[in-house]
Amino acid sequence: MKLILTVLVAAFTVVACVNMGTPATIVTSASPEAAFTCALRAVNELGFTVTTSERAGGLLRAEKRDGGFIEAFVGTAYYTELTVTVSPSPSGQTSLQVRPARSQQAGNLARSSTGMSVRGQDQALADSVARRCSTT
């Protein structure tokens, strides 16, 4: 029983450690609600699946599975993850931040980001969401 508990704690610890990239941050004159709607639309248009959508709290999480050659032969799934936070700024405008992350999942094991680096294309996707919402 003690071993099972130790394994579970270790698994949750690994899942909680996320290797994140540089946040893409913009300030817009749009309301927080309009900026959130824009970010939601942008991640959907880029092919992401929304995993968390808390409009009132200004939190949006989405993921995109990077299938293909490596996954087919190695059996490991790779994911690009975006975390969007929307909040009113002190100036009366709205701040929107999009942070990319990378993770992998081997077979039925817990997803892990250990040793995963955010790729240039992951960062570009975060930048794209921010750019799309800078003119909202």
Give your account of this protein's structure.
The protein contains 4 helices and 6 strands. It is α+β, with helices and mostly antiparallel strands and 136 residues long. α2 crosses α4. It is elongated and about 50 Å long.
Main features:
alpha+beta, 4 helices, six-stranded antiparallel β-sheet, 34% strand, 136 residues
Compute the average pLDDT.
83
Order of helical and strand elements: HEEHEEHEEH
Q: What distance separates the N and C termini?
A: 54 Å
Work out the number of β strands: 6
Largest sheet: 6 strands, antiparallel
- Portion of residues within helices: 25-40%
* Percentage of residues in DSSP E strands: 25-35%
Quaternary class: single chain
Q: Brief description of this entry?
A:
36% of the residues lie in helices and 34% in strands. With 136 residues, the protein is α+β, with helices and mostly antiparallel strands. Helix 2 (32-45) packs across helix 4.
Question: Topology, please?
Answer:
Layout: H1 2-16, E1 19-20, E2 24-28, H2 32-45, E3 49-54, E4 59-65, H3 69-74, E5 76-88, E6 94-106, H4 120-133
Antiparallel strand pairs: 1-6, 2-6, 3-4, 4-5, 5-6
